[in-house]
Structure prediction request, 111 residues.
Amino acid sequence: MTEAANMENEIFELIAYGGNARSLAYEALEAAEDYDFNKADELLKQSHEELSHAHKTQTALIQRELNGKTIEKSLLLIHAQDHLMTAISEQKLIEHMIKLIKKFKKEGENQ
Prediction:
């Protein structure tokens, strides 16, 4: 595989893993809205695993550049980074929302 083709595959990995993480986080939020917190927690765990894969790919790209290999900046690479950072941000927000749902459910049960 050529270096350009390998780079393109890594970029698509960032997009795919980020998208998977984001989708799983939203599924977790839906489960929490139904008070299925076990399912929500499992989906968040899976979301974190997807982001872990994305971070490994991202780290490999960064290390390659730090070791002197020129990384061609492209709109696709920028899109992948944007996609990944959005997934991370939304995942964190969804985690907070799920904590709030758990808290409100518990408070409602205690009344």
Observations:
- Residues 34 and 40 are 9 Å apart (CA to CA).
- The chain has a mean pLDDT of 93.
- The helical segments are 3-33, 37-66, 75-109.
